[in-house]
Amino acid sequence: MTSFRGRLWSRLEAVCRFMPVIVNTVLVVSITGEVMYLVMVEAPLEPEQKERDWAPLWKGVHLASQIFMFGNILWNASLFLRTSPSIRGVFLEGSAVGQGWRYCYACETHIPPRCSHCYDCKVCVLRKDHHCVFFGQCVGFKNYRYFLSCLLFMWAGLLYAVVLNVEVFIIILKEGITPHSVLLLLMPWIMLITGQVTARAFAFAFVADTCVVGCLCVSAFLFFHVALMLRGQTTREWYSNQRPYSLGWRRNILECLGERWYVAWLCPLIPSPFPGDGIHFLVTAPPSGVRSDNVNSGKN
Ligand SMILES: [Zn+2]
Ligand SMILES: [Zn+2]
């Protein structure tokens, strides 16, 4: 009975772990599908625009940019999930144990600086940033590039969806920006229940609202992580107000996105090897509580 409960619990745990990934995938596919519908069916937005020669080209450019963003989101997310940032398979014993190394009792091994144990992933993670609940996996040294690129294209896709949805929404109402259209955007459910709008106008307002909220949340995440990347900090170091590994903004970007950082964000297939190994880091400032004369640079 106990083993049955144990198996049931582990199955439930596995389903719950992948649930955020499934929900996010459904959201990304739904919003992309809705925006494609807007471009293919609703656009050109004005009847006279349908006569213009550039309308098919306009649609083609929009569709191509949507497919590019959608593909990048899924590809980066897939690579993020498949690239383990943990210490599994990493040879640590040969590394010189020195300043900043600690012992993890759960993994029963010495772990390098910036490495930390994740109790959700049940393993230590190299250059651990945080455990991402939306992906159900840790963000660390090896998959930080894919995490950032995925965030970037989610932000771009949502911003694009917001602009297109709000534009179409206003034209569907054929009234411009009025108190009625603003109220519909702010309180779509109340406007539908009180019979002030049609179901079609409500649907467009609801999707536009979802995109706005999603865009604001993703913007906050993206700008926070871009700031951290420029500062050479992880989320954990930001919490503890430490910045001992900053090498200047250009080198900090290179450490996160690899040697081809200037194009690596455009496509996850572009090879961009990291200059470091996720084990040894150049220390440029003493961590709090450590005297500067005790600071060394590990391998470097
Ligand atoms: Zn551990
Ligand atoms: Zn984790």
TrEMBL record:
Belongs to the DHHC palmitoyltransferase family. The chain crosses the membrane at residues 21-40, 60-81, 146-171, 177-194, 201-224. GO terms for cellular component: membrane. Coiled coil: none annotated. Its main location: membrane. Signal peptide: none annotated. It is found in: Membrane. Pfam families: DHHC. Keywords: Acyltransferase, Membrane, Transferase, Transmembrane, Transmembrane helix. Residues 101-241 form the Palmitoyltransferase DHHC domain. GO terms for molecular function: protein-cysteine S-palmitoyltransferase activity. This is Palmitoyltransferase. It is a multi-pass membrane protein. Its EC number is 2.3.1.225. It comes from Erpetoichthys calabaricus (Rope fish). It catalyses: L-cysteinyl-[protein] + hexadecanoyl-CoA = S-hexadecanoyl-L-cysteinyl-[protein] + CoA. PANTHER family: PALMITOYLTRANSFERASE ZDHHC16 (PTHR12246). The DHHC domain is required for palmitoyltransferase activity. The keyword Transmembrane helix applies.
